[in-house]
Amino acid sequence: MELTADQVQALARRLLDAYDRRIEIPALTDEQPDISEADAYRIQRALLGLFRQRGARIVGKKTGLTSRAKQQAMGVPEAIYGYLVDTYLLRDPGPVRMAELIHPRLEPELAFLIGERLQGPGVTTAQVLAATRAVVPALEVIDSRYRNFKFRLADVVADNCSASRVVLGREEVSPDGLDLRLQGMVLEKNGEVVDTGAGAAVLGHPASAVAWLANKLAATGEALEPGDIVLPGAPCEAVFVQAGDEVRVTFDRVGSVTARVE
Ligand code: 0L1
Ligand code: MG
Predict the structure, then answer these.
(1) HSE-up of residue 232 (Cα within 13 Å, Cβ side)
(2) What sign does the CA torsion over 149, 154, 155, 157 have?
(3) What is the pLDDT of residues 195-254, one digit of tens each?
């Protein structure tokens, strides 16, 4: 049964309280196992409304679960999306402050800076590339508000796809002439290579993930707007961090970004 408006607000406030107090909470579906995907996005919208009431601005959007491996692990057929808030944004090298977070993990993303409006349905990968002003190396900090990062689809959607921080690199590169599908990436933690990947791990092509997002947003009348920062998803697993760690990702022909954790 669809959640009432009061239930949606109460669940959004529960998540906001976890943000504010930096505490892990049980998954919402532990108590209400049948929260639908539509209701999960209503809770997410209510949570973003609470952020806005505090003066936060939406500066972009993100996709999650964009690798087939993650989708299979969650038992879902497609990706999910959330929003980036101005207070999440950090510039290379951060810092990423553990005291502001619960149990953060960092993952590499090639952020898209949108130059022209992309309104679905029917947005193609080629249209995304044409409308992208630049791509930027980024490290996304995901920090689920749920105990041990244990959640079901509705939980993670309601929690704005674990969005927490984004450390943006300083190099902005036009995607013209780059084959982002073949683009290699090396992830290092404290100077050691911990993972590698290629752009095709993100829904076959990172720009296809952005096209998916533009088309998905069409259902609510939204679009990708000029100035939006869009995270298409990570080409490898996220790494746990602790104070003192330094994480760096290097994208072939684009550049690198470092996040210092303190
Ligand atoms: O950015 C992401 O892909 C994270 C989506 C949510 C799943 C998670 O927290 O691992
Ligand atoms: Mg991500």
Answers:
(1) 31
(2) positive
(3) 999 999 999 999 999 999 999 999 999 999 999 999 999 999 999 999 999 999 999 999
Tell me, rounded to whole angstroms, the distance of Cα 238 from its chain centroid. 12
- CA–CA separation, 110 and 258 (whole Å): 13
| Domains of the chain in sequence order | 57-260 (3.90.850.10)
What is the pLDDT at residue 59? Answer: 98
CB 106 within 8 A of CB 96: yes
Q: Cβ of 49: how many Cβ atoms within 10 Å?
A: 11
Q: In ligand 1, which atom is closest to the CA atom of 144?
A: 9
In this structure, which residue's CA is closest to atom 6 in ligand 1?
161
Q: Note whether 81 and 61 are within 8 A (CB).
A: yes
Cα 142 to averaged position of ligand 1 atoms, centre (Å): 6
